[in-house]
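Notes continue from the previous slide.

Worked example: a multi-chain complex. Inputs as given:
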Amino acid sequence: METVKNLIFILMSSVLVNNYVLSRFLGICPFLGVSKKLPQAAGMGVSVIFVMFLATLATYPLQHFVLARFGLEYLQTIVFILVIAALVQFVEMLLKKYIPSLHKNLGVYLPLITTNCAVLGVTINNITDGYTFPEAVVSSLGCGLGFLLAMVLFSGVRERIENCDAPECFKGLPVTLVAASIVSLAFFGFTGLAENLFA
Amino acid sequence: MKKETNLSVFLRGLLIENPVFVLVLGTCPTLATTASVVGALAMGLAAAAVLVCSNVAISLLRNLIPSAVRIPCYIVIIAGFVTLVQMLMHAYLPALYELLGIYLALITVNCIILGRAEMFAGKNGVLRSALDGAGMGLGFTLALLAMACVREIFGGGTFWGLEIPFISNYKIEFLTKAPGGFLVFGLLIAAVNAITKCRAIKKKDFGCETCPSAGACAAKPCPAADENLTTKVGMTEKEEKENGNG
């Protein structure tokens, strides 16, 4: 029971309170770049959940059974980014061969995710926060869901911004960032939610 | 004559092609580490060091790396230098190491560094690549400092940890938090736009430039790209020609 509680706590805090995009500033580039239309934003979000999940499955055992055992923790950054890059390539090839319909929808986003800092961020955070394996998996799913939530919400905001009449020098990126600030402010309201969930 | 071109390679990154305010690359550290001036300076200099080293290494190896696997090779080289910087900071500047935390490791996936490797160091000589790295790195540092000054002075009422007499009574604490980061970044880009009369950014709305793998996927159709992609591809070709001629 206690572990389930803990897992729900981790999930809630990574989706809402410590949302990777809006309060930890990870994965800002795709957040700004691919949130113009809802289907693209959702596609990117789903792909990120998928890759974060797989990356955690791959890097967590690697850290504990290979790097930590042989005292190679200092290679963490290099190994993790390589594993993520290889994994993304591998998943893309598998999808292309066996599930072409899914590849058609998600395939285009996969190469972009290799250098998404949110993915590397999740895998490293899972280690530094000292999570157990189930906790790490839940946290990776939570962060992915948080990313999807932020993308989908913001794509709705973006569609309204496209039609608004901003001052000349605010057009494009600046007005989008100001809107992102307001969305981030909304998420700020979740502070303390997870802590008080079981209080 | 040669010297002048080298100088312009160096200066380009500082203002005209400032990686943060004009090219809009490396947004994650720009937002995350600028709550304090110290953090911003440390982040900027660490990234600049990695950028110069990786540019030099990639430029030296550019004829050995097969172009089909160049992106993974670049990433490994960059990750190696990031690990070096991490170890040095952990040993000699532990306080800063704690302050930057995960963002130090995430220099690996900073799009400025991979972007410069792909767009410049892979095609140019060692000296010019080093100068380009130094210019872009300094431009990145200056941009971070500008963000951090606004956020720390008006948000915290301090500068470099020292309290500023009058402003600290009227500080806007929201600026040091996450939403304030987005707001200040937006306002500063708008200010840069206003100064350059919207000329610099108008061509580049959102598209592949803002995506971390811009360099990696230039050949493939990018999901985010509509008309922007063509502008971007056109521009890189132009840039290549200029580099080839110069």
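Summary box: Chain B has one domain: 2-202. The beta strands of chain B are 158-159, 162-163.
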